[in-house]
Amino acid sequence: MDVPLWLLAIIAFGVINFMLISASVLVYAERKVSAYMQNRPGPNRVGPAGFLQPFADVFKLMFKEDVAPRAASPFVHSLAPVIMVVIAMTVPAMIPFARGVVIVDNSVTVLIILALTSVSVYGVTMAGWSSNSKFSLLGGLRSSAQMISYELSMGLAVASVVLLAGSLSVVEIVEDQSVGGAVLGWNVFRNPLGALIFVITAFAETNRAPFDLPEAEQELVGGYHTEYSGMKFGMFFLAEYVNWFVASFVIVTLFFGGYLLPFEPQILAAYPGLEGSVGLGLLQALCLLVKVGFFVFLFLWVRWTLPRFKYNQLMEIGWKVMLPAALVNVLLIAIAVAVFMG
After folding, report:
1. What is the C-alpha separation between 319 and 157, in angstroms, rounded?
2. What phi and psi, each to the nearest 5 degrees, are found at residue 63?
3. pTM to 2 decimals?
4. Partner of 60 at 20 to 30 A CA spacing, among 41, 160, 185, 323?
């Protein structure tokens, strides 16, 4: 269905605020889940069951003094967190939340998503360089090397999806997964190795454990944001959690059917009145959020289960394992498309 411009503006406003609020909810979820895994209560003072603790933390950051090193580059030091937040808040514009409900839909949205996620490394590198601190600089350099190493494998995993769908449009990639009318049409079943590679590289791209080498508190104090305080630090924090949330959306969209309901054609055949209705759109959006919630939990589960890699292990996995596997996967998918899909 075609969505009018005024409704797209409302959707865009809602998505931006949803992402802002989701960051606070994710902070709460991470603290609670980690607490349960470590047999402790977690935040339980501010609000019911401690739910308002993240909002209290935001207010605290708002009133903290903004301290910058005397030898830092002031403009670049202030620009870095802005770049991180702007890019993190831009990517959701390309995510379809239901059939026809997407802010930006064109023939190259996959390329736009990859380009935006690649640019985010500039914010980390600028923060590390402009702080004039060896810890921050090392964190920025680590992040740059890590992004280069894992973006190659991520790009090849996305290329395998594009080969299957025959399109660079995210919406068409989602709709292509409805082939066969069942869950088995999702790319995670048609392209399991590509899905595994993409999920692993998503951990590395978002600097989540066990790939959190750019921060590595035990080695670099805080990495690229060691010299940040107040709301500048809060903006880095916001960008990290929004990127984590967006990464879950992208994983679901490319490999797990996006907004598609399990057995959606059969459901529509049984209830033909749902076709094109608001109710179907709400069901699709709810289904998308449930899938995303699973991967949000997966990110938390992995963080509090696996230890951080050593840096040589990080590089070896990226270049000696992920890249060859991604190349083989693209080759196999290309052969399968040529043979079976003509």
Report:
1. 14
2. -100, 0
3. 0.93
4. 41
